[in-house]
Design a protein that fits this description.
The complex is a heterotrimer of chains A (261), B (381) and C (409). Chain A has helices at 41-53, 82-93, 133-143, 150-155, 168-180, 185-207, 223-233, 246-259; strands at 5-11, 16-22, 26-33, 60-66, 78-79, 99-103, 108-113, 119-124, 213-216, 237-239. Chain A is an alpha/beta fold and 261 residues long. Chain A has two domains: 5-87 and 244-259, Nucleotidyltransferase, domain 5 (2-Layer Sandwich), CATH 3.30.420; 96-239, ATPase, nucleotide binding domain (Nucleotidyltransferase, domain 5), CATH 3.30.420. In chain A, strand 9, helix 7 and strand 10 (237-239) form a beta-alpha-beta unit. Chain B has a domain at 29-161: 3-Layer(aba) Sandwich (Rossmann fold), CATH 3.40.50. In chain B, strand 7 (321-327), helix 14 (331-346) and strand 8 (351-356) form a beta-alpha-beta unit. Chain B is globular. With 409 residues, chain C is of the alpha/beta class. Chain C has helices at residues 2-6, 9-29, 43-48, 56-65, 69-78, 87-96, 121-133, 152-173, 179-201, 214-224, 229-248, 272-281, 291-294, 302-308, 318-331, 346-363, 382-402, and strands at 34-37, 52-54, 111-115, 137-140, 259-264, 284-289, 336-342, 367-372. In chain C, helix 2 (9-29) runs parallel beside helix 10, helix 12 (272-281) runs parallel beside helix 17 and helix 15 (318-331) crosses helix 16 (346-363). Chain C is globular. Chain C starts with a helix and ends in a 7-residue tail after the last helix. Classes of the chains: A alpha/beta (261), B alpha/beta (381), C alpha/beta (409). Chains in contact: A-B, A-C, B-C. Chains A and B meet through helix 2 and strand 8 of A and strand 8 and helix 15 of B.
Chain lengths: 261, 381, 409
């Protein structure tokens, strides 16, 4: 039987991700480049995902883009909002999902999914960077640690150091004060995670949360944030190893559905 | 180009450059008065033989000089009004009328008055307990104050007759605009969101008598146009101002038609006419204000009418959902959101809330939200 | 008599404030109606009808001072109230919706009394309470005034609403208005206001016989109990203590009084200690706060009473606001001003940049601002505050040196 290959491209603000799907259900290739819209990231990600499975653009039945930079490529077949794509991917990975929380580089989103996997309601963060990946970037820089190290640092924490400011700039100065008073860096990181979780939990509660809750997006890789969010919401949160690829995956699934029409 | 397109184009030209309109009137020897939000009785300005200019901030403007008067957490409409006053954008106006109807406008009236003394300043405080006799009396007293100041600025008295005439002109204009809102809803294929906005916004920079002539012509053409089924989504918009070209374009690009609105700058401002059978025209205007309702800016003596009013609006207009354009830092809109949310949810009406301000240049988030909302509604059809 | 004299005035004041809540709880237990009121609604009305009333603003201040502010704000935000909205409103709406606040419990209301002289937010805040609890709302609308004088139209409009409010409240409570009782209540209210102003007037002395920050605490009584004789008596007792302090050269300000400042704005209740710390360390006493003249409701007849209710910090024009502040700055001999840019209060913070300029020009003293919030602890940065206070101190030192003056001890 003829195999149908579809490609999903997610051009985010801070990273470019691609997924190639076979017959709308098997992930045969994926790629991630740590730069996003407006850079060489998208092109490199597309080349990488094709190289990995030895296919070409022409082998694709349908190519769909999502993410902040989705309108920047003119040879794709169509584009969809990352809200719809994340919802699609979450449902694909966790069929019992009803709430999706996506913390990306510049956004935080909460999506409500029906039992059929349809997006029924959503909310996005308002006004500022607090509660997004950007907040974690700033704090990692202040602490002079790598973003990837935040998870293991907070795992070593023995008590929470509260970072109370919602304003990123104020929070930065709070962290500096804590460092200056010799608070344990692990405890500070835990406080930072708690701060992000608090903001996002607030957004989630406004929209209404229902089990099962799934987290997608790049920040989901940080278990420290996931744990903090579980504590804030008092509920279990499911995270797939493919969390960072949710946008691209959803795009590839939509691409498959469109190729069948 | 069809006559409809010609007319749409003419309205579009007006909103691109309010300055051109102002210069046009000034060259005709007329004086113009800036009317800041909300509920300024333009009729009195018109009766004084001056041109009212409705000034609701500046979409795409940048706040600089106004920072000397306001910290960051204030509505951009007010800040940009002050900015324009300071930068010279409003030069040519012979005066301004300002109301302290919200907590940003209270200090705004003071800041503008002292920062821009070159504009004769007319202060207008509406009563919130506007319906009882003592409320109507207070409105009349405030409007009389406005009238006195305008007589000073205009250099001649304002007769009852000219006030009555102004009321008639304005009632006609409001009726014409209300009719247009209904007709535009019937013909989104002819009038898109951008064009719809231009028609309503242009009324703020045109003598109403002139605007009505053009609009009546357009309405008659729309009335005659054959009905075409709209394959896209129908929405009701809600908020303070929605005149951003980018946002309107995104709405259109997502196949959304605005079939009714709860926008302060648009339908909220034209809902109520002044009674023409009232002998005393100042009283007629006061009674007009007394009848205003369903506005986040106004006290609701029945406490919770607005959600039901908007739900009815959605049902009557055949809309599938509500797009709430939440002006950042707008206390009244924010305070009324939970009740609106509850009313819409209880009625099973989908909605999306999008944060906006007039300085925005990146509409990425709005684009994503509107696209997702449109997708959602399409799948529910 | 002797018993009474032994009790320090501040404990008397605390007892008066506590009694307000106790009265409300007792009324509830007796099956009587209890109201919530905005801080500057004419308290004389409910008092005359013998109705117990509590003050959400006071409760919110207490809750946030006891560090429950964030929790309540988050509940309100989950209900859909934006975090941009006044912290007092968010805390109170969460409470009205049933979220508990052990920090300062208050009986739920059977009616609400709203006067928006202090801000427009009041209008929608109280409408929301009425919706959530499904109870009647009595509204006395005081339009913002652009002139120094309060004109007859304002007076007539407010009088009309005042009379209507009485009728409405009679209907709601089933009680009858007693004109004689009203006269007595007004007399109490005036007496309390005068006693309050007398207390505040002790700030004029150099050195001051008390710490200006005390006023932030005592203020609760003039907000919640000004129609009670006990309030007047407590303030009079405090005035006597201050008089005694003056004679004895004592003060409740236990530090050097190197500088005297006006603290502009509502304090940051969740961070009172943090606010106080650098001030006491540097010997900076607060000897002027706008709350002093703001609650001086003194009137001799109904017209004057209506005019008095038109005078709240956020309902008077810029010039009047500046005059109040410059008046107390001069009388109370301040050499610096610290302005709280309160994230929760748009009307108040909206005048401050222009007022700051006028203070500098008219009073020739340094003026410094800092960012904070009256109730939401997340909008304050201790590091920023300390830096600003240090800066203010350094400039005040410079001014003192420049003027060739000596530090006051």
């Amino acid at each position: 039987m003829e195999k149908i290959y579809t490609m999903g491209i997610d051009i985010g603000s801070t990273a470019s991700k691609c997924i190639i799907l076979k017959d709308g259900k098997d992930i045969i290739s994926k790629s991630l480049i740590e730069v996003g819209a407006g850079t060489t990231g998208p092109t490199r990600a597309i080349k990488a995902v094709l190289d990995e499975c030895n296919l070409s653009k022409e082998d694709m039945s349908y190519i769909l883009a999502t993410g902040y930079g989705r309108n920047s490529i003119d040879w794709i077949d169509s584009e969809m909002s990352e809200l719809s794509c994340h919802a699609k991917a979450a449902y694909f990975l966790f069929p019992n999902v009803r709430t999706v929380i996506d913390i990306g580089g510049q956004d935080a989103k909460v999506l409500c999914i029906s039992d059929k996997g349809m997006l029924t309601n959503f909310a996005m963060n308002d006004k500022c960077a607090a509660g997004t990946g950007r907040f974690l970037d700033v704090m990692a820089r202040v602490l002079e640690v790598k973003l990837d190290d935040l998870e293991s640092l907070s795992a070593e924490s023995t008590k929470v150091v509260n970072i109370s400011s919602t304003c990123t700039v104020f929070a930065e100065s709070e962290v500096i004060s804590q460092l200056a008073s010799n608070s344990n860096i692990c405890d500070i990181v835990r406080g930072i995670h708690k701060s992000v979780a608090g903001r996002v939990a607030g957004l989630a509660k406004r929209v209404g949360i229902e089990d099962d809750i799934v987290m997608t997006g790049g920040v989901a890789k940080n278990k420290g944030v996931v744990i903090a969010l579980e504590e804030e919401l008092g509920k279990k949160i499911y995270v797939s190893p493919l969390a960072h690829y949710a946008g691209a995956l959803g795009a590839a699934i939509f691409a498959y559905q469109k190729s069948q029409k | 180009m069809s006559r409809i397109d010609e007319l749409l184009s003419e309205f579009g030209e007006i909103v691109i450059s309010p300055r051109k309109q102002l210069d046009k009137y000034l060259s005709q020897g007329k004086k113009a008065i800036g009317c800041f939000p909300y509920y300024v009785p333009e009729e009195i300005v018109y009766a004084a033989d001056m041109v009212p200019f409705g000034i609701w901030g500046q979409t795409g403007g940048t706040i600089n000089a106004a920072k000397e008067y306001f910290a960051a957490f204030y509505c951009t409409i007010a800040q940009l009004n002050l900015e324009m006053g300071l930068k010279g954008t409003l030069d040519g106006l012979s005066g301004v009328i300002a109301s302290p109807m919200c907590d940003t406008l209270r200090p705004f009236t003071q800041n503008f008055r002292v920062a821009c003394p070159q504009f004769p300043f007319v202060f207008l405080a509406h009563p919130q307990n506007r319906r009882p006799g003592y409320g109507v009396d207070f409105t009349m007293a405030q409007y009389t104050n406005v009238k006195d100041k305008l007589e000073e600025i205009g250099g001649k008295p304002i007769s009852d007759e000219s006030l009555k005439n102004a009321i008639k002109v304005y009632n006609d204009s409001r009726a014409s605009r209300r009719n247009f809102v209904k007709l535009a809803a019937k013909h989104p294929e002819l009038v898109n969101a951008t064009q719809r906005s231009a028609i309503l916004k242009s009324a703020y920079f045109t003598l109403k008598s002139e605007h009505t002539v053009l609009l009546n012509e357009l309405n008659a053409l729309l009335e005659k146009a054959p009905v075409v089924e709209w394959k896209g989504i129908k929405i009701v918009t809600s908020g303070i101002v929605l005149d951003s070209p980018s946002l309107l374009e995104i709405i259109t690009k997502n196949n959304m038609a605005i079939v009714a609105d709860d926008v302060a700058h648009e339908s909220r401002a034209i809902r109520i006419d002044a009674p023409e059978n009232e002998e005393n025209p100042m009283k007629a205007l006061a009674l007009q204000f007394a009848a205003q309702d369903y506005d986040t800016l106004l006290y609701d003596p029945e406490i919770n009418k607005r959600p039901g009013y908007i739900v009815d609006k959605v049902k009557e207009s055949g809309a599938q959902g509500v797009v709430i354009m939440m002006m950042q830092f707008c206390d009244p809109e924010e305070m009324e959101f939970p009740s609106l949310k509850k009313g819409l949810e209880e009625a099973g009406i989908p909605y999306v809330k999008i944060g906006i301000d007039q300085q925005m240049t990146d509409f990425g988030q709005a684009r994503t939200s509107l696209q997702a909302f449109s997708d959602m509604l399409s799948m529910q059809k | 008599m002797l018993e009474n004299e032994k009790v320090p005035a501040k404990l008397k004041l605390r007892a008066v404030a506590d009694q307000v809540y106790k009265n409300a709880w007792d009324a509830k237990k007796r099956g009587e109606l209890v109201g919530w009121s905005s801080s500057k609604f004419p308290a004389e009305i409910a008092e005359t009808l013998g109705l117990a009333v509590c003050y959400p603003e006071n409760q919110a201040a207490a809750i946030s001072a006891k560090h429950g502010g964030q929790r309540m704000c988050e509940h309100a935000e989950a209900m859909g109230y934006d975090n941009d909205i006044c912290g007092y409103a968010r805390i109170n709406l969460a409470y009205a919706a049933g979220h508990e606040a052990e920090e300062k419990p208050m009986p739920q209301p059977d009616f609400v009394l709203c006067c928006n002289n202090i801000c427009n937010c009041m209008t929608k805040w109280y409408e929301n309470i009425a919706r959530i609890r499904n109870i009647p709302l009595i509204m006395i609308d005081v339009p913002y005034n652009n002139t120094v004088e309060v004109d007859d139209h304002h007076v007539a409009y407010i009088r009309g609403q005042f009379d209507d409010a009485i009728k409405q409240l009679e209907k709601i409570s089933g009680r009858t208005w007693d004109e004689k009782k009203f006269e007595q209540v007004c007399a109490n209210s005036n007496r309390t206001a005068k006693a309050w102003l007398k207390v505040c007037s002790y700030c004029q002395y150099k050195p001051s016989p008390f710490s200006g920050f005390d006023l932030f605490n005592h203020m609760a009584v003039v907000v919640t109990a000004r129609c009670k004789v006990e309030a007047a008596e407590a303030f009079e007792a405090l005035a006597q203590e201050l008089e005694q302090n003056l004679k004895d050269g004592k003060s409740t300000w236990k530090y050097a009084e190197t500088h005297r400042i006006m603290f502009e704005g509502i304090p940051c209740w969740p961070q009172l200690q943090a606010l106080f710390k650098p001030l006491k360390e540097k010997g900076i006493n607060t000897t002027a706060v706008v709350y002093a003249p703001a609650f001086g409701f003194v009137y001799n007849n109904m017209d004057e009473m209506m005019k008095a209710y038109c005078k709240a910090p956020n309902s008077v024009c810029l010039e009047t606001g500046v005059e109040w502040r410059e008046g107390i700055c001069r009388e109370n001999k301040v050499d610096g001003i610290l302005v709280h840019y309160n994230r929760s209060c748009k009307p108040w913070s909206g005048y401050m940049p222009e007022m700051q300029r006028r203070f500098r020009k008219d009073l020739d003293v340094p003026v410094v601002g800092f960012d904070g919030d009256q109730a939401d602890p997340r909008n304050f940065s201790e590091a920023q505050y300390n830096t600003r206070v240090e800066g203010l101190f350094e400039v005040m030192e410079e001014y003192t040196a420049r003027k060739g003056g000596d530090h006051n001890e």
